[in-house]
């Protein structure tokens, strides 16, 4: 499904379906600490029913399945949901994945103890989504917003790869990340109270292949470039990594979370 949003990449169209297989293979990269920060707050654990909006290939529910929560994962991209189902079925996980936008989730009111949004919160129509999420949550339910990004000004490999993305997608708005708390839109405060937030650094291990795959599966590359542009980027990025990266390395990232309580 092609998406055009004036808030993102200056309105350049993107389609996660174009890169879903690479996404499934290369973007399951969050370290254990990322998930332990969630469990340590008593979220997404046994006895809770959790809705993961913008689930993509189901990275969050699949990695947190062992903690015992009952999961539903939704995403606007049918191709992403297809990959999520394949991966969950292969691991014998009972997760209900649905191809539906966050704005159109049709579960009954007060169904969930927790709703999660990992690496996707800025895509939503917040004027529609925030009251919807409030209704879906039970009394005192929690909205957990999660994010992780490389730090291009501190990590030379990340910085060089990002420069190459910008060569092919100069209006890509995912560039230039620095540490900061997760942005919460004003409308959210009508329905939620910010209960907790944290920002912390992470080192994420890669090989040349897995970093190349992770970069290819980003919005500015695989989800938006033409076939010809993607072929050129692919060759140039592989050559770049051959010059600057060892076979195995770590990339400096930071992660952030925000816990919002329904009021």
Nutshell version of this structure?
This protein is α/β, with parallel strands linked by helices. 32% of the residues lie in helices and 25% in strands. It is globular and about 55 Å long.
Order of helical and strand elements: HHEHEHEEHEHEHHE
| Radius of gyration from the alpha-carbon trace, in angstroms | 18 Å
Beta strand count: 7
Q: In which order are the strands of the major sheet placed? A: 3-2-1-4-5-7-6
Which residue ranges are poorly predicted, with pLDDT under 50 across at least 5 consecutive positions?
A: none
Terminal Cα span: 34 Å
Helix content: 25-40%
Mean pLDDT: 98
Tally of contiguous helical segments: 8
- How much of the sequence lies in strands comes to 25-35%
Structural class: alpha/beta
Topology:
Layout: H1 20-26, H2 32-39, E1 49-53, H3 59-64, E2 70-75, H4 78-90, E3 96-99, E4 112-118, H5 126-136, E5 137-150, H6 156-168, E6 192-207, H7 208-216, H8 227-244, E7 248-262
Parallel strand pairs: 1-2, 1-4, 2-3, 4-5
Antiparallel strand pairs: 5-7, 6-7
């Amino acid at each position: 499904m092609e998406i055009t949003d004036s808030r993102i990449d200056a309105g350049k169209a993107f389609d996660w379906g174009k890169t879903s297989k690479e996404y499934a293979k290369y973007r399951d990269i969050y370290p254990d600490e990322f998930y332990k920060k969630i469990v340590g707050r008593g979220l997404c654990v046994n006895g809770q029913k959790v809705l993961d909006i913008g689930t993509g290939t189901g990275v969050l529910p699949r990695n947190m399945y062992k903690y015992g929560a009952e999961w539903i994962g939704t995403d606007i991209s049918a191709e992403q949901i297809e990959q999520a189902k394949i991966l969950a079925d292969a691991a014998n996980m009972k997760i209900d994945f649905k191809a539906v936008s966050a704005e159109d989730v049709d579960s009954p009111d007060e169904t969930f103890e927790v709703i999660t949004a990992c690496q996707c919160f800025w895509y939503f129509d917040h004027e529609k989504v925030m009251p919807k999420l409030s209704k879906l949550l039970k009394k005192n339910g929690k909205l957990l917003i999660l994010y992780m990004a490389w730090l291009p000004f501190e990590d030379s490999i990340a910085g060089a790869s990002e420069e190459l993305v910008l060569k092919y997608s100069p209006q890509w708005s995912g560039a230039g990340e620095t540490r900061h708390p997760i942005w919460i839109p004003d409308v959210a405060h009508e329905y939620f109270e910010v209960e907790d937030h944290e920002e912390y650094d992470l080192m994420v291990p890669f090989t040349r292949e897995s970093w190349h795959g992770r970069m290819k599966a980003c919005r500015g590359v695989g989800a938006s470039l033409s076939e010809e542009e993607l072929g050129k980027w692919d060759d140039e990025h592989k050559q770049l990594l051959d010059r600057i990266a060892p076979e195995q390395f770590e990339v400096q990232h930071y992660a952030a979370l925000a816990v919002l309580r329904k009021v």
